[in-house]
Amino acid sequence: MSTLPLPHVLVVDDDEGVRRLVDDYLGQNDFRVSGAVSGAELLGAFRTQVVDLVLLDLRLRGEDGMRLLRQLRAESQIPVIILTGRSDEADRVMGLELGADDYLTKPFSPRELLARIRTVLRRTHAGQEVHGAPVCRAYRIPGWELNLRTRRLTGSDGGEVALSNGEFNLLAALLATANRVVSRDQLIEMSRRYDNEVYDRAIDVAVLRLRRKIESNPAEPCIIVTERGVGYRIAVPVEAVY
């Protein structure tokens, strides 16, 4: 029987002592932890991994922590806990206004950090669960991963492929159906989970564009195949990441 993966916390802090403290303590409490020391490493982790929560120091050397927080919020809804100094009240207020879910002041207690992370993840998951079932974080097919939180499509080589809103909506809806045939009307309804403005002909156009981006030979597709007179289906194995 498969088990759910451990929640993944990304610690963005250029203080090695903080990263080690968080890694050691959370690792003992059923979390997976990875570290980043810069904005570039943070964004790189987003492109290659499924991240459940970001612990972000707003005072990274040579970096604008507020800019990073703004970028995170513009690109995803992944929960963020910010780290600030005890005297940095303005940073805490601005960070919360920019969409941070919580904050901790340095130095902090590992037990308090664990409690706050669990609280934020509980609150986040409560908002994401549908009828008691966890919502998928990402889908993987041979050669590709679609991260539903960051809305990014990455290849097995780590390269990112830009998707329009319509293309993302359609691909997410198709992957959610795995190997079932889905009609255009069904795809329209399923895509509206991500965006209300989805229309009949937009489905066909988006399928053509997606094939150009993910198929090795768009003229003879093997990932998104057409079932004539019915609709479309994903014809490769789909792995859901929760």
Protein described:
With 242 residues, this protein is an alpha/beta fold. It folds into two domains: 8-128, Response regulator (Rossmann fold, 3-Layer(aba) Sandwich); 138-241, Orthogonal Bundle (Arc Repressor Mutant, subunit A), CATH 1.10.10.10. It is built from eight helices and twelve strands. The protein has helices spanning 16-27, 39-48, 65-75, 89-97, 110-128, 165-176, 184-191, 200-214, and strands at 8-12, 32-36, 53-57, 80-85, 102-106, 138-141, 144-147, 152-155, 160-161, 224-227, 231-234, 239-241. The strands form three sheets. The protein has a five-stranded parallel β-sheet, with helices on both faces. A five-stranded antiparallel β-sheet has the order 9-8-7-6-12, with helices on one face. A two-stranded antiparallel ribbon has the order 10-11. A hairpin with a 3-residue loop joins strand 10 (224-227) and strand 11 (231-234). Helix 6 (165-176) packs across helix 7 (184-191) and helix 6 crosses helix 8 (200-214). The longest helix is centred in the middle third of the chain and has 19 residues, at 110-128. The radius of gyration is 20 Å and the shape is elongated. The two termini are 15 Å apart. Residues 129-133 and 194-200 have low confidence and may be disordered.
Shape: elongated
CATH homology group of the largest domain? Response regulator
Q: Report the end-to-end length measured between terminal Cα atoms.
A: 15 Å
Percent of residues in helices comes to 25-40%
The SSE string, one letter per element, is: EHEHEHEHEHEEEEHHHEEE
The CATH C-level name of the largest domain is Alpha Beta
The radius of gyration is 20 Å
Q: Find the structural class using helix and strand composition.
A: alpha/beta
CATH fold-level assignment of the largest domain = Rossmann fold
**Total number of β-strand segments?**
12
Largest sheet: 5 strands, parallel
Low-confidence regions: 129-133, 194-200
Q: What is the average per-residue confidence, as pLDDT, rounded to a whole number? A: 83
- Strand content of the residues, in percent? 15-25%
Number of helices: 8
Order the strands across the largest sheet as they lie in space. 2-1-3-4-5
Q: How many domains is the backbone divided into?
A: 2
CATH architecture of the largest domain: 3-Layer(aba) Sandwich
